[in-house]
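Session log. Operator J.P. requested a structure for one protein chain; no other inputs attached. Running the standard single-chain path with C-alpha cell output.
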Amino acid sequence: MSMGKREGKQEPLWIGVGEMPRSAGHRFYEKLNELLGEAGFDKKAEALCAPFYEADGTPGRSSVPPGGVLPDALHRVLRRDRVGAGHRVAV
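Structure written below.
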C-alpha cells in the first residue's frame, strides 16, 4: 500500500434491513398462512399456551425446573447413565 491520496469515497459497509430487496414468498407458505389465518389458528394456539404464561406474557415460573432447563436435563442424563451402568455390572 502506498501513502498516496485516496480516490473517491468508500461506500458504507452496513445496509439497513429496509434497504435490502425482498423476494416474493413461496406460494405454499402464502397459502398456508392464508388458511391458518382463516381458521383462527393464532387465537387457538394462544389459548392453548395461555396457562403456561404469566399475565404480562412472560413464561410462567412453574413451568421451568429450579436452576433452569439445561441443569435439569443434564441431571436426568447422568442419572439415567448411572442406573444403566449399575444394572449392567451387577452380579
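Operator note: The chain has three helices and no strands.
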